[in-house]
Write a structure and sequence with these properties.
This protein has about 450 residues and is α/β, with parallel strands linked by helices. Among the domains are: about 250 residues, Neutral Protease, domain 2 (Orthogonal Bundle); about 55 residues, no CATH class. It has 15 helices and ten strands. α1 runs parallel beside α2 and α2 crosses α3.
């Protein structure tokens, strides 16, 4: 594989750095904008297309920093602001900085045939991992194969499609498969060593189920020691890892792997998982007496799933949510539990059989059409109710959020508070950015409906 497909992040503490220019590698850099922790500069030669790349980086960099802060156990970046300098870089290096903790990050840009901001955001993310590793100060040296691999896998976790063209897993699989897990390479420019480390990290995370936070916290002198700290034991994790990959990609044959992460895979010899039919949930039957006895229990039971209509006037006062009073009758109607009360009518004259025969057809047809319309309306209402998130539930899940907050912080808080998979998936679709308060989150969540 050509070297240009393997070099991604380089750390060169011995390179000469000329301090008389703000960014000597890109002397024509102009500032595009800044966030709380990052300033973005773009080479003026890139013109309006370069500015679009810079604006794309600004839109996502704070959320990336928040995500990596969680992975690294809350460690803070000491040298702020970080300067991201964007240009079309020559040679094989696509992202680099002068030393593990250097806050000036040089990143490549793609503007032809189309502007690709996510490509540059991916490169920025890889260099941010270097800064977090240097700030943590224990393990994950960016100048080693393990440190380079960590930059790649975490950046790819944020931008999975952008690793295409920089893959190193196949380089190791198509080699003699030397053990770079027990003995790490002391350079970030060896694609075989990096490919081995990348595969091993994905194996720990996606196959064995360890979180990135746990993997990073367990950092040892080698990846083998990291694995021992994660799950204990004196067994050889490299042997198990290599044997599993040998079953998937037999040695001596081209692997044809076009990604850095072939996991998760079922273990060899494992039976296919049993297909379990979805559990049938019976519809809730609520018997309503004429006196509406027991309504209070019904209201409490549905409190977490009740959804207000779009037209409800609900506002955040700063201390509590102000909303229209909801009566017991409203709740019962919302969940279709009211029954028609019998009505007393005067006895009607019995019609002749001929008149009854004439009137029966049209009346039945009209009744059927009305019933179908009512059923469709109920189905649409029920479907919308299932898709929406209860705003009372959302308020509860956001209780521990410190605002302003990013989308990742909101999702993490909701997960900690016990949010369901559906709620977490919906919150994960919120637009990127930082939300100033709970009302802004609720408004953005409403817009997703």
């Amino acid at each position: 594989m050509a070297q240009s497909r393997c070099v991604l992040v380089t750390t060169d503490p011995d390179a000469a750095y000329e301090a008389y220019l703000p960014f000597p590698d890109v002397p024509a850099a102009v500032e595009v904008g800044r966030t709380e922790r990052v300033q973005v500069w773009v080479d003026a030669a890139l013109g309006p297309r370069g500015r679009r790349v810079g604006e794309g980086v600004l839109a996502g960099v704070e959320e990336d920093i928040d995500a990596f802060t969680e992975h690294f156990g809350g460690v803070a970046l000491p040298d702020l602001p970080i300067s991201v300098v964007i240009a079309q870089l020559g040679g094989v290096d696509r992202a680099y900085h002068y030393g593990p903790a250097a806050p000036e990050l040089y990143c490549d840009a793609r503007t032809v045939p189309q502007v690709e901001p996510r490509y540059t955001r991916f490169l920025v993310a890889a260099l941010l991992v270097d800064l977090f590793a240097a700030s943590r100060g224990r393990g994950w040296d960016p100048g080693t194969s393990a440190g380079e691999a960590l930059s790649r896998v975490l950046a790819a976790s944020r931008y999975p499609r952008q690793i295409i063209g920089f893959e190193t897993a196949a380089v190791w699989l198509d080699s003699d498969r030397d053990d770079y897990v027990s003995i790490e390479s002391d350079t970030d420019r060896d694609p075989r060593a990096t490919g081995c480390a990348v595969l091993f990290l994905h194996w720990l995370h996606d196959q064995l189920g360890h979180s990135w936070a746990d993997i990073i916290a367990a950092a040892g002198p080698t990846l083998v020691e990291t694995a021992h700290r994660l799950h204990g034991g004196a067994s050889d994790p490299f042997a198990a890892f290599a044997a599993e990959l040998a079953g998937l990609y037999p040695p001596g044959r081209p692997s044809n792997l076009e990604t850095d992460n072939p996991f998760p895979r079922a273990p060899r010899g494992a039976q296919a998982p049993e297909v379990v039919e979805p559990e049938v949930v019976e519809e809730l039957a609520v018997v309503v007496e004429p006196s509406l006895e027991g309504v209070e229990a019904t209201v409490a039971e549905f409190e977490e799933t009740f959804v207000f209509a779009e037209g409800d006037d609900e506002q955040w006062s700063g201390d509590e949510w102000l909303r229209p009073a909801t009566t017991e009758l409203d709740v019962l109607e919302e969940f279709d539990v009211l029954e028609e009360a019998p009505t007393s009518r005067a006895p009607r004259r019995e019609r002749s059989p001929r008149k009854a025969e004439k009137s029966r057809g049209p009346r039945e047809k009209k009744s059927t059409a009305r019933s179908a319309e009512k059923s469709a309306r109920k189905t649409a209402t029920t479907s919308a109710r299932k898709r929406a998130i209860s705003e009372s539930t959302l308020r509860r899940l956001l209780t521990g959020v410190k605002f302003p907050a990013s989308r990742s912080a909101i999702v993490a808080a909701a997960r900690t508070a016990g949010g369901s998979d559906r709620v977490l998936a919906t919150l994960g679709k919120l637009p990127t950015g930082r939300y100033r308060d709970r009302a802004a989150v609720v408004k953005a969540t409403r817009a997703l409906r």
